[in-house]
Specification:
The protein has about 220 residues and is mainly alpha-helical.
Length: about 220
């Protein structure tokens, strides 16, 4: 017997699966990191005078620090473990760096010398600073391994960042290492800004810029 109309008792046909939400947090976190890093490297490369330091401290506190930490917390809430861990870690790094520099400047006004976070000074009292930069270089090396399953943009950022940290560690013994760190660090910050814009263009315009395609090296 032939029937017409809808057949009752059967489950409805499945509809199209919803698309994944755009990555709206990553570009902000990368900009927090990249912009603040470039500002610091203006001083490390000696492109800007020491009078620029207070501005870098302010932006390290608010943009590179609090902003990046907020991005990390939001990524953790989303379940993005890598981005949440990285953004939160480097956000706390910038917050700590800003506090160290502020304490250093305040104590110098009272004639007390405390090691700040800028490279170039030498002597046995700066061994701790080398170990501090070296420790962050080791952590960044661990993050870099994860990027081998991400994309070229992230590999460039973390690869140049780990080199920057190790050069900063060596700047306590060889000032030229600090200058080299300034240039490589500026390239690292610029790479983060590029990656942020590339993610933004991919999300909003559908453009896939070089370095954004996924890769799997390990």
């Amino acid at each position: 017997m032939q029937t017409t109309g809808h057949v009752t008792g059967l489950p409805p046909a499945p509809g199209p699966e919803p698309s994944a939400p755009p990555d709206s947090i990553g570009p902000f976190g990368l900009l927090c990191f990249g912009m603040t890093t470039c500002m610091l490297m203006f001083i490390v490369t000696e492109w800007a005078a020491g009078a620029f330091i207070p501005m870098v401290i302010a932006y390290a506190l608010m943009y590179g620090g609090l902003g990046q930490l907020l991005a990390g917390i939001l990524e953790i809430i989303k379940g993005n473990t890598f981005a949440g861990t990285a953004f939160s870690s480097y956000g706390c790094f910038w917050l700590g760096w800003a506090v160290i520099e502020y304490i250093s400047i305040v104590n110098k006004s009272y004639g007390i010398n405390i090691v700040g976070g800028f490279p170039g000074a030498t002597g046995p009292n700066f061994t701790g600073k080398s170990l501090w930069f070296g420790l962050w270089g080791i952590l960044t090396s661990g993050f870099f391994v994860v990027t081998l399953r991400k994309n070229g943009c992230l590999q460039t950022i973390f690869g140049t960042l780990l080199v920057t940290f190790f050069l900063l560690a060596g700047s306590s013994y060889q000032p030229l290492c600090g200058l080299a760190a300034g240039y490589i660090g500026f390239f690292c910050g610029s790479s983060a800004i590029y990656a942020a814009l590339a993610m933004l263009y991919k999300s909003e315009l559908g453009w896939i810029l070089p370095g954004m395609r996924s890769c799997n090296y390990i």
